[in-house]
Amino acid sequence: MRTTRMRKSEHLEICLRRDVEAILKSTGFEDVELIHDALPEVDFDEISLKTTFLGKKLQAPVMILPMTGGHPRGGRLNLLMASIAQEFGLAFGVGSQRAGLENPRLMSTYKVRKVAPDVFLLGNLGIPQLLGKKGPQLARYAVESIDADALSIHLNPLQEVVQPEGQPTFRGGLRAISKVCNTLDVPVIVKETGAGINRRVAKKLVSAGAAAIDVSGAGGTSWAGVELHRAGRGLGATFWDWGIPTAVAVIEVAESVSVPVIASGGVRSGLDAAKALALGADLVGLALPVLKAAAKGEKSLRQFLTSFLLELKAAMFLCGCKNLKELCNTEVVITGRTAEWLTARGFSITKLCRGKRR
Ligand SMILES: Cc1cc2nc3c(=O)[nH]c(=O)nc-3n(C[C@H](O)[C@H](O)[C@H](O)COP(=O)(O)O)c2cc1C
Hints:
The protein is built from 16 helices and 12 strands.
């Protein structure tokens, strides 16, 4: 049986070396158009990306998502990504701390406070670690051991069912989340890992006490794909493109709950980010592109984020939006498969396109 530490290291290497993104499904952002404003009443330099997320100020509405830790390379990458998050004023999440729960010596690979004293920092655990009596205690340990501002709990039923040694045991998951939310003094963010969250699940999570939801939809990293590369067999081929496209999930969730919504899963450019924010997201989350840039080094990560934020600002300028509130209320056009998805899910496209979402 492979240890959690070995598995996390294999995931990292596969994501860096192999093609692991959706093939036949896309995020749906290509079906969303922001409306060009030929006379924007704003100077480019006036545009502000600043926001507040769960009480903490951020310089831009971006979170570097949970990915790694539990082995030496993961530890080094966490330090690099966290220090750049500090420099850019972004939120940052360490990867699943399960390896650290199994072997407390590995908890050091998640500790980034010394390079990121002001960052909004998230701990991370999955449902299987939270089931059972000790769940809330383990959640508290995960948060306190890295001095986190919040805990993110990942939902990954697709990965667990596809992974040869997976733990597809989710019965009691909502109760476990609720217990953790009631026990911790910090907010709990619940996230998917690339297959999306629908409105029914979102409402349940909020009633259980989730303070924010990261939809992490389909169209970006495919965990069925990652596990297929790792095992060379199994369900991964059939389920490679499973999930709710990110643009659809953002609308489903933002329209049905009032807690902050994070748009992630295949967000690859500042223009994707602008579209997600215009659809009602409060932040966008980035995983694979940040990992790839970080693996090349500090300069490359800085360059990636600088151009990402420049693209976001350019999109805002071209829509005449000075700040994120204006972007959230801007008009959009939704066409193609995404419009079909949303109509089938009971939404009025005309209403969604009108702006004034949150
Ligand atoms: C190498 C790698 C490791 C990941 N590990 C975790 C994890 O430990 N916990 C978690 O919540 N999500 C994990 N994720 C999922 C991401 O946080 C994110 O939800 C998903 O990759 C979709 O975003 P993307 O398309 O930008 O990659 C991981 C993603 C990558 C690429």
